[in-house]
Amino acid sequence: MRILRRPIGALVLIAIAAGAYGGYQHLGRRHPPRVAEAPKPTAQPPMPPVPPAAIATSKAAVEPAPIEPPTRMTSAQEARFDAWLVKTYLQCWKPPRQPADADAYVAKVRLAYNPDGSLMKPAKLVNPPSDPALKPQAKSVMAAVQSCNPLQVPAQYRPFYEQWKTKTIHFDPQVAAR
To answer: How many Å apart are CA 115 and CA 159, to the nearest integer?
Structure first.
């Protein structure tokens, strides 16, 4: 080995030799030993572009389909609607007294509605009375239909307009008396 003439070079050589020898490693340290740290995450490589068709397919698979309301009322819903309709018309109806000697007359009125609950066309009395004594009863039924126009159809029935756009209502004086 060649002796270096410069003292700094010799010190470097000695430091290297001391570091190589395990017995003197503790002499060169000024700080306590480091605790191994968890490896830092590396940046992920960029994702390749995804075609729009694949995005639409994956969204359909991930996002649930919107729940569509049923297109028809159930029989229970329809019965509740009919009961509401009759009750509403009976509140507008002021039936005259039926003659004691006349048969009971239950007027039947066919109605056609717009989606907003107003009458699409004039109401039609399906069974006009043949007895002139019952004509005031029929007239009062038609007046009740006009006084209730337009109906304020409850929100839960509005989507089912196709089912209630035409109805036949029975105006029974015995039901009205209750």
So the answer is: 9
Q: Does the residue 44 lie in any domain?
A: no
Residue 13 CA from chain centroid, whole number: 81
Q: Helix, strand, coil proportions of the chain in percent (round to 5)?
A: 45, 10, 45
DSSP 141: H
pLDDT in tens, 88-124: 999 999 988 877 777 788 999 999 999 999 999 999 9
The verdict on 101 and 171 lying in the same domain is yes
- Residue 157: which CATH number? 3.30.1150.10
Strands 107-112, 166-171: pairing kind: antiparallel
Q: Please report whether residue 160 resides in a domain.
A: yes
The answer on 165 and 101 residing in a single domain is yes
Non-local CB neighbours of 155 within 8 Å, separated by 6+ positions? none
